[in-house]
Amino acid sequence: MSLATKVLMSESDAPHTKAWQNGKYRFARWLASPNFGPRPAGAHIDLVVLHSISLPPGVYGGRQVQDLFTNRLDWEQHPYFKQIEGLQVSTHFYVRRTGEIWQFVSCDARAWHAGASQYRGRGNCNDDSIGIELEGLEGDRFESAQYDALAALCPAIVQHYPITHIAGHEHIAPARKADPGPGLDWKLLQKLLGMGDQCFPEGVLQKTAR
C-alpha cells in the first residue's frame, strides 16, 4: 500500500476533518500572496506543475522564498536579487526541505507560477493548473521529507480536483525552464502516488534521478 493510499484512508476515517475550505489545504501553513487572479470561466483544473526554487540559488532555510511570493523581498539583500527585482510571481504550494508545506494562493484561483507555457494541447497553464514549488536547486536531489509531503499533498489535490496530469516546469516551458530538473525522482513519486504512467511526462519514468 502506497503512502498516498494510507493518507487518503486516514482522511476518510476522520469525516469530521475537512481537508479543504475555499481552495485552502488544511494541513498547509497559509500566507496570502497578492499575486493571483480568477481562473477563466470553465477552467478544468487537471494539471499539477512541480517547480524548484531557492533564494539565493542553492541557499535553503531562509524566508526569502516566502518574501518573494508576497512581494516583500528586499532586493538589496543579495546581489542575485537585483536580477529578479520587481518580479511578481506566486505559487499555490511551497514544500520546504523539511517537508513543511506552505500555501500562498487558493487552488480555486489562478496563481502566477507557469508563465508562457503549453501542455496536453493547451497553452497558458496557469489557467488550469496547481503549482507546487519544491525548495531545491535544478539538478540537485530532493529530501525524503519532501517526497513524504508530496505523497500527502498530491492525493489530497487529486481527491478535490480532477487532476489527470503531473509535470515539471521544464515540461510545460522547455525553451525557458529546466526545473525541477534531473534531481527529481519521478519513479519514486509515481510509486508514492500510485498514479498511472499516462499521468506523467513522456520519458521521465525511464530516467534515474541524479
Structure description:
The structure is a single chain. With 210 residues, the chain is α/β, with parallel strands linked by helices. 21% of the residues lie in helices and 18% in strands. The chain contains five helices and twelve strands. A hairpin with a 2-residue loop joins strand 9 (118-119) and strand 10 (122-123). The radius of gyration is 16 Å and the shape is globular. Residues 1-16 have low confidence and may be disordered.
- Gross morphology is globular
Q: CA-to-CA gap between the ends?
A: 26 Å
**Helical content class:** 10-25%
CATH class: Alpha Beta
SSE order and pairing:
Elements: H1 3-12, E1 20-21, E2 24-25, E3 29-30, E4 36-37, E5 47-53, H2 64-69, E6 93-95, E7 101-103, E8 110-111, E9 118-119, E10 122-123, E11 129-135, H3 144-160, E12 165-168, H4 169-172, H5 186-193
Parallel strand pairs: 3-7, 5-11, 5-12, 6-11
Antiparallel strand pairs: 1-2, 4-8, 6-7, 9-10
Helix pairs in contact: 1-3, 3-5
Which key terms come to mind for this protein?
210 residues; alpha/beta; 5 helices; 12 strands; 21% helix; globular; disordered N terminus
Briefly, what is this?
With 210 residues, this protein is of the alpha/beta class. Helix content is 21%, strand content 18%.
